Amino acid sequence: MGSFHLTKMALRNLVSKPATRLYPLEPPVYTSMTKGHVVNDIDTCILCSICERKCPATALTVDKPNRTWTINPFSCVQCSTCVRICPTKSLRMEPDYTASAVSMQSLTMTKPSEEPSEEPQS
Ligand code: SF4
Ligand code: SF4
């Protein structure tokens, strides 16, 4: 009886599609439930530090004087809290996972300085 089931399973597997993908030749398909990783549109970020204060994993650092926003992707737990509370909606979750790396490095983005206002004409 056992060998009958085994033969049936083997024959079914011979004619069915493979359960695995040929990664990286076949790109992964992410579902709508995938959390992925945090991305900041630094142009719309106002460096208010709300995301840094609310992040439960202390994965974010905002340095207003130096105009930088930093995320430690190895501390981030993909909870999306920062995305929900960002007042300018500059944060979003991208569905793909953080790229693999050989060292635990943070990612720092620098907000370009504002253009100096034009001198009033006399
Ligand atoms: S909450 Fe949004 S606008 Fe404020 S520092 Fe964070 S990313 Fe920038
Ligand atoms: S997704 Fe959660 S853990 Fe990751 S940076 Fe945002 S608030 Fe922090």
Describe what you observe in this structure.
By secondary structure, the chain is an alpha+beta fold. It has a domain at 39-98 and 105-112: Alpha-Beta Plaits, CATH 3.30.70. 20% of the residues lie in helices and 16% in strands. It contains three helices and five strands; from the N terminus they run H-E-H-E-E-H-E-E. The protein has helices at 2-15, 50-54, 81-85; strands at 37-40, 60-63, 68-71, 91-94, 107-110. The strands form two sheets. A three-stranded antiparallel β-sheet has the order 2-3-5. A two-stranded antiparallel sheet has the order 1-4. The model has no long low-confidence stretch (mean pLDDT 89). Bound molecules: iron/sulfur cluster (2 copies). One iron/sulfur cluster binds next to helix 2.
**In CATH, what is the class of the domain at 39-98 and 105-112?**
Alpha Beta
N- to C-terminal separation?
Answer: 99 Å
What is the tally of beta strands?
5
Structural class: alpha+beta
Remind me, CATH topology of the domain at 39-98 and 105-112?
A: Alpha-Beta Plaits
CATH hierarchy: architecture of the domain at 39-98 and 105-112: 2-Layer Sandwich
Name the ligand types: iron/sulfur cluster
Fraction of residues in β-strands: 15-25%
From the alpha carbons, calculate the radius of gyration and give it in angstroms.
23 Å
| Main beta-sheet strand count, sense and barrel state | 3 strands, antiparallel
The helical percent reads: 10-25%
Strand arrangement within the widest β-sheet reads 2-3-5
Average predicted local confidence, pLDDT = 89
Tell me, what's the shape? Answer: elongated
